[in-house]
Design a protein that fits this description.
The protein has 5 helices and 9 strands; from the N terminus they run ββββββαβββαααα. By secondary structure, it is of the alpha+beta class. A 5-stranded mixed β-sheet has the order 6-5-9-7-8. A two-stranded antiparallel sheet has the order 1-2. A hairpin with an 8-residue loop joins strand 3 (about 20) and strand 4.
């Protein structure tokens, strides 16, 4: 016996090919409808070594499918290329019309522009990382030099004379640090760190210039030392040497 289904189509033996649900009170069953616009199909999307199992309405387009894929892969729809049976599919094509069925397989690839953009981002990230590391290394050397400058400043401000060659040497080492910083390629945070270190070293150089002027100034009479006084304490030269804890070392050559 033939009958009409809810869509007005003829079905053999009064039944239809679609799923039906019963209704209370002996009312005739009705055909189930998908809220998302039709029956769904399961699709396997292969992206490199990754596989994504997706369920979408069969009447979806490949553009719709790309938006679903985006949620799983974070790959923007405009950066996706979908292949079915060896052919790239256009966004406006319908999955059902293209022949996709349950368990159909699709190949997902990134477009060339996306790959180039990611490579450029990776390169920039690498430059930032290397720049920050290089600045950190110079900063560590600057910390040691700053300790030397502070020691000299304490001695000179106390009225004690130091060897001018120590001041000149330390100033030259600071200027070398400026050259190192100038040669560092850095972006983003690394560039900010480099500028901070440049200003720091420049301030240390200015301090050394002030110390040089103070150190070369004549000693006042109340702190002058006579030759006989020097001889009485073991023949120490009138130009007092720095204490061992504050002497400028010559070990900074290892920074080069």
């Amino acid at each position: 016996m033939k009958g009409l289904n809810p869509e007005g189509e003829v079905a053999e033996n009064g039944s239809s090919n679609t799923e039906e649900e019963s209704r209370p009170g002996g009312m005739p069953p009705v055909q189930k409808r998908e809220d998302d616009g039709g029956p769904t199909i399961k699709i396997k999307v292969c992206h490199g070594s990754n596989h994504h199992d997706l369920t979408v309405p069969s009447l979806s387009t490949f553009g719709d499918l790309k938006r679903v894929i985006c949620r799983d892969t974070d790959l923007e729809p405009k950066d996706q290329r979908l292949f079915f049976r060896g052919k790239e599919k256009e966004d406006q094509e319908c999955l059902q019309m293209a022949g996709l069925k349950d368990n159909s397989k699709l190949l997902l690839m990134e477009n060339l522009a996306c790959k180039e953009r990611k490579l450029e981002e990776l390169k920039e990230s690498s430059v930032k990382s290397k720049g920050s590391e290089a600045v950190a290394k110079v900063r560590a050397d600057n910390d040691k030099l700053a300790e030397q400058v502070a020691a000299l400043n304490t001695v000179v401000c106390d009225g004690t004379k130091v060897a001018e060659k120590d001041i000149i040497f330390l100033t030259e080492m600071l200027e070398r640090q400026l050259l190192k910083l100038d040669g560092i390629e850095a972006e983003g945070e690394g560039r900010i760190q480099r500028k901070t270190e440049v200003r720091r070293v420049q301030s240390l150089v200015e301090m050394m210039d002030d110390l040089k002027s103070k150190n070369s100034a004549p000693i006042s009479n109340d702190v002058s030392v006579t030759k006989s006084d020097n001889e009485s304490v073991g023949g120490i030269d009138a130009q007092t040497s720095l204490p061992s804890s504050t002497k400028v070392t010559q070990d900074w050559e290892v920074f080069e």
